[in-house]
Hints:
Blueprint: H1 2-14, H2 17-33, H3 35-44, H4 47-70, H5 76-105, H6 111-140, H7 142-162, H8 178-191, H9 193-208, H10 216-223, H11 228-250, H12 258-278, H13 282-310, H14 316-329, H15 331-345, H16 347-383, H17 408-415
Amino acid sequence: MQQVGLGWLVYRLTHSALMLGLVAFASQIPSLVVAPLTGVWVDRWSRHRIVIGTQILSMFQAVTLAVLVLTGAIRIWHVLALSAFLGLVNAVDIPARQAFLVEMVGGREHLANAIALNSSTFNAARLVGPSIAGFLIARFGEGAVFVLNAASYVAVLLALWAMKVPRPPASPGPETSAWRTLTEGIRYVAASAPIRTILLLLSFVSLVGVPFTVLMPVFAAEVLHGGPHTLGLLMGAMGVGALAGALSLAARKTVRGLGRLIGVGIAVFGASLVGFALSRSVPLSLFFLLLCGFGMMVHTASSNTILQTIVEDDKRGRVMSLYAAAFMGTLPLGSVFAGTLAGRIGATRTVLLGGLGCLAAAGVFALNLPALRTHIRPIYVRLGIIPELATGLQVATEPAVPVRHTSHADKEIIQS
């Protein structure tokens, strides 16, 4: 709700696509700069307490924004400053929350389902929230949206304080310098082909594709000739698709096959972006945004699940901080680029180029997927996710079958 309300507030104050990009830049750039450093803290301190602290600060930001809007004192520089403050908070919160998930689940066995269910609840809110926000903005203004968002943190904090979870024993000792701990995590990621490839792919899609969301007010008002209610419908359609994608992943019984789904998700996302850019009909745009949400969720949730499954526990915080930098940290650069490019060539052409870029990335990933599987299979064997024989690692130790002694019927069975 706050995301929709903030976008409409900025557009009402400035009527500028560039300013929409700058506000998104201010809220997301801290993830690129600060998030890699926060991974060191997440691996050293209680993730539970870190998350509680970040939610308190997020509540303070929401209350301040609500007061400024309701009193009529809000200015665009207030929005920029508060967005930057929330970006700093999220730079700590996102890696801490992602690493904290495995502590709540209690192991890797149900981790994939937990990540997918977490995405389901998030996207169920994305489904309901924009529609409510569009109604409230049209009826009462943006202030009502910000008030409800501020009040919602009470329930969040009560839930967090009620949790009783043990702190994982594996963490760098206090005698290890923060810089050494950080560089150790970076070297670990650089040496792992699957982790490195997933993070680079997330960065690229977040740079060229995902920033189309900052231009949604432009599409709602200028391309589709609607208002805040139209914006709520567009964002809600994305939520429907993302929820469907998250639920489909939650129903899976294994992490096997998620690599292929990463490529499929990016391809669906890119193709639907192209369709949305060319659409001039609200129903058709809603359809393409539904596919956008589905593809984007399948890509990000599958990437998150694979990373959380194959990463070593004592480096989880640092890897997830780099995940936050790759996913959220590149968004501000893409948002400014999208806003600037939209000001020159138009919002529709900007989104069209982003979709074509995602389709190209999906093709490159598909070509490299077989090589990545050779790196992931031994890890899955060690974790017991797939049988050891299935990887082909023990083929040389198995006795050869003397085919020349088999009957014709046996040969047919073996061939089938």
